[in-house]
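Lab notebook, bench 4. Still working through the backlog of constructs that have no structural model yet. Next entry is a single chain of 188 residues. Request: give me the structure tokens for it.
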Amino acid sequence: MNKYIIHIVSHTHWDREWYLPYKTMRLRLVDMMDTLLGIMDSDSDYRYFTLDGQTVVLEDYLEIRPQMREKLRNYIKDGRILVGPWYTLPDEFLVSAEALIRNLLLGHRIASDFGRVMEIGYLPDMFGHISQLPQILCGFGISTAVLWRGISGKRAEYLLQGPDGSEVFLCRLEPERGYSNGHDILRQ
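Model written out:
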């Protein structure tokens, strides 16, 4: 029998406002973050959590729980909670290239203030991608991206090339389940 090593990185996909108002979603965020920090405090084997590639969630959480700043900073600095590189996950087609760059600048600044920036272009829920995405990511030293929607074909890995020749190694989330690809792994 072949042995495989499977890495499961827990994460959240966080829509600040989508089908519920912001204040309702923020209360859910506070519950989720309190639970996450409790798990990390009690289980050193729970090694990583990806906070959806954005940093605005830190601000939203700390407005309610300012006393958790140092604990959060320590987990981010230690690489256990992965944040950034974005401030908010953008819809690439609705904003200008300058807005994308400013979004990354702000996300990097906030993540750096907490001790570490996730160096992956994490864009799981966009419905398409601009051709300049590799160029913009490379401009921030990001050479790897994780995407789900907006990619045609069935492969899991691509080399995404921008019009200027910039290249980013792209990992595509499983097409049928996207960012929920492990939610029922124990039932299978």
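Notes after review: The two ends are 19 Å apart (CA to CA). The CA atoms of residues 77 and 115 lie 4 Å apart. Flag for follow-up if needed.
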